[in-house]
Amino acid sequence: MAQMRAYGDEQQQQEILHGHGLDKDGAGGGDSNKKARAGLCGVLRERKVLELARAKQRLVEVPYTATLANAANALLAGRVSAVTVAAPPGHWIGAGGSMIVESDPATGVARKHYIGMVNMLDILTHIAEAGHDDDAAAVEDGQAAPTEAIDLDRRMSVPVSSVIGHSLEGLTLWTFHPNTSLLDCMETFSKGVHRALVPLESSAENVVAVELVESAPVYRMLTQMDVVRFLRAHGAELGGVLSRTVRELGAASEAVLAVASRTKVIEAIRTMRAGSLTAVPVVDAPVDAYILQDGRGKKVVETFSATDLRDCPVAQLRLWLGTTVAEFKKKVDEYRRDGSKPLDAATGVQATDDGDAGTTVDAGGVAGTGNEEKPPRPREMVTCSMDSTLGEVIEKAAASHVHRLWVVDDGEEGLLRGVVSLTDVLRVVREAALDEDRELQNIVVLE
User: How many other CB atoms are found less than 10 A from the CB of residue 58?
Assistant: First the structure.
């Protein structure tokens, strides 16, 4: 994907689209332009990603020479879903052909190149693949269980750069120009991109699309959740879209692949990687021969996500990967509540909690970070129905820090009907904004 730059007439066209163009008499503004800028679309066009990026904490990164064990500890300590991987400039091609370089603020000389991102699913997929290589021989001979046959120490000692791209998300590293509007940002995020780097300063000008080449002294990571939190905080400016239901907006996807609660964790990881999934519902059903099964019409009891994998301490990986998903969830919950604190001193990373905390929160309504001491509390699912409003979905997602809500029916069983993800939320808000904008433009033309 090449950069898109607006010069001359194209620049004037962009200004008109953003409500800053000249009227027919050469003067700026005018009642027509004010009407065109009004509404949801105007709000999202006026606000820039830089405003959201400035509020983020510093980037969590690891060097390309770090081991997978180092990367796993950084994920846990930083409370993030993914870490960026940095390498010396001039020696690597970045994920997706990107060239994202951090430069010295004083001299402008490139000092590091961000070559990709890695999440816990990438790491555990690398471990799970042991079942398909030479490590599987003992399993085939009946001499060992799948996790016992894995040489975990060897697999966790490989450089993190070797697992970039193991999951679909890691295949490309995205970046937004700081002047990208939230409306344009939402277009990218509504297509399944979960996060992108934003330079706090940029050497490029008038860029109106996602960039693949960028040089700046400081970057921040902008996520789908950051935009959803913005929508939550500015609900009064968003008009009627928040009062419309999931059903009205077509926000739910009815295709939901699930795993049974007694599925082995290592098998769930392999199938999630094969299906390019970062989370699946856990249903009360027999284990399917194909592991992944159609979850519709079944009782959803939990969520199994990349964040659960992140919160598994490296020292316990060998034992925990051989447990069932239900047992694994219990162990992770216990560790979050009572386990050792993340090794902040070892990594120098400040906790940011940018990860997906699954789809459960404490019954008291407080999502835990894993750092504080808390008494045991029952946990409940975060769900919605087809008749839930978009405002209710956004409130639940932002308050509980979950990246998807399972859609259940209104019966006592709460059977699974679909899923609403942050991707879906941003898609329907953007579509509603554009529809409203077209109506406003038609009013302007008629007048």
Answer: 14
* CA-based R_g, the chain, Å: 23
CA distance 345 to 338: 19
Of 207-216, 339-348, 395-404, 429-438, which range is least confident?
A: 339-348
* 158-167, 364-373, 434-443: least confidently modelled range: 364-373
CB 412 within 8 A of CB 420: no
β-pair partners for 83: 118
Q: Dihedral of CA 192/197/200/201: which sign?
A: negative
- Cβ-count burial of 30 within 10 angstroms (0-12 exposed, 13-18 middle, 19+ buried)? middle
pLDDT in tens, 286-332: 988 889 999 999 999 999 988 888 888 877 887 888 899 999 999 98
pLDDT of 183 strictly over 90 = yes
Question: The tokens of 191 are what?
Answer: 């297509």
Neighbours of 212 (CB within 10 A): 18
pTM (whole model) above 0.85: no
If we measure between CA atoms, which residue out of 307, 305, 278, 281 comes closest to residue 292? Answer: 281
Indicate the pairing of strand 404-408 with strand 360-362: unpaired
pLDDT in tens, 38-74: 578 889 999 999 999 999 988 899 999 999 999 999 9
